[in-house]
Amino acid sequence: MFLKELSEASGISSREQEIRDLIREYVKPNVDEVFTDSLGNLYAVKGKDKVGPKVMLAAHMDEVGLMITNIEKNGLLRFSPVGGVDPRVLVSKPVAIGKNKVIGVIGAKAIHLQRPEERSQVLGYDDLYIDIGASDDEEAKKLVKTGDVVVFATKFQELGDLLLGKAFDDRAGCTALIELTKCEFACPVYFVFTVQEEVGLRGAGPASYRVAPDVALVLEGTTASDVGETDEANYSTTLGEGPAVTIMDRSVISHPGVVSMLFKLARENGIPLQMKRTITGGTDAGKISLSRGGVPTAVMAVPCRYIHSPVTVMNYNDLQHMVKLAEIFVQEIAQKGVELS
Question: CB–CB of 31/46 below 8 Å?
C-alpha cells in the first residue's frame, strides 16, 4: 500500500527530499515526464501533447513537525513547531531527528514533581524538550544540530477499514495522485505534489503559475471530529461517508461549477460524497485559484481524525472513493470541457 510508505517517510515543510524521492519512483513508470522546480514541487505530466483542457491535480507532500532551536548544556533539545501543531498532544511521543533519524522522546516535568497549581495548567512549547539520551550538550551535538527537523516516529497500522498513521494530511492526497497516474485520460493532466503547504501554501502558487491549468482539483486530508466529546453539528466530516468537498474555508471559496460537477458525478456513479461542514483551515486551492487570470478550483479531501498530531485515523474506503471520483471528474472534463457555470 502506497500510503504506508508515504506515511512513514519524512517530509517536514521545506525538507521534503525524502518524500519527494519516494513519490518520484512511484510515478515515473506511469507518466510521460517528471521534473522538479526550484522550490521543490514535483510535477508528473501525462498526455502533455493531447488536445483538450489542461487539468491540474494537486496534493501537498509536506507535513507538520518540529525544528530544533537550542541544545541545552544538559543535552536536552528545545524546539519550535513547523506548521500548526498543538503542544498539548506532544508529551511522551517518540520522534526522529534530522537526516540520520536520531530517536528521541518529547518530555516534560513529571507529574510527581509538579506543584498542585502546575497540574491544572496547559503545557506550552517552553515546558517541553526532546530527550535523546545525551549526557550533555557536547554528546548531543555529535548526533543533532540546531535547525534539524523533527518528525513523529509513528508506525502505520491497519485497524480493519480504518488506518492509523502520521501525516495523512496530506499523504492521503499524495496516495490518490499516485493511483491516478495509472489512469488514461483524453486530455493533458499535470499531477503536482507541492511543498510548504503547512507553512503558508507556498509551493502551490508558483506551481499553478507554471502549469497554467484550465481547471484544478486539490486532493487533501481534512478534519474529522466525529468523536464523543464533539457536538454532532460540529463534526466537520465523518469517517466512512466518503470524501468531503470544501465549499469555503479561510483560503478559498471553491468554484461552484466544479463543486456541482463533483456532486452530480458522485450521485450518477453511486459514490458517497459529503460536504465539509466547517470553514476553518486552508489549502493549496487558495493559491491555485488565484494564479494568472484565475483557475476554477475545488478541494476534495479524506476525513481524518486527530489531524496535525502524531497519530491520525482515516477510513480506507473514503480514500478509494476519492480516487474513483477524481478519475471520473477528469474524464468528464476531457469529454465536455470546462463550461463550469
Answer: yes
Read off the pTM.
0.94
Q: Rg of the chain over CA atoms, in angstroms?
A: 21
pLDDT single digits (tens) 97-131: 999 999 999 998 656 555 665 556 778 899 899 99
Q: Which domain holds residue 85?
A: 65-152
Strand partners, 58: 192, 218
**Choosing from 8, 179, 197, 198, which is the catalytic residue?**
197
pLDDT of res. 79 = 96
Taking only the tens place, the pLDDT of each residue in 161-188 is 999 999 999 999 999 999 999 999 999 9
How far apart, in whole angstroms, are the C-alpha atoms of residue 85 and residue 77? 17
Listed in order, strand segments (DSSP E) in the chain are 33-36, 42-46, 55-60, 65-71, 77-82, 94-97, 102-107, 129-131, 149-152, 157-159, 162-165, 189-194, 215-224, 244-246, 274-275, 297-305, 312-315
One domain for residues 125 and 43: no
> Has residue 46 been placed in a domain?
yes
178 and 91 in one domain?
no
Q: Residue 140 is part of a domain; what is its CATH number?
A: 2.40.30.40
- How many independent structural domains does the chain possess? 2
Residue 8 appears among annotated catalytic residues: no
Nearest CA to 108 out of 126, 94, 124, 127 is that of 127
Q: Do residues 197 and 185 make contact, with C-beta atoms less than 8 angstroms apart? A: no
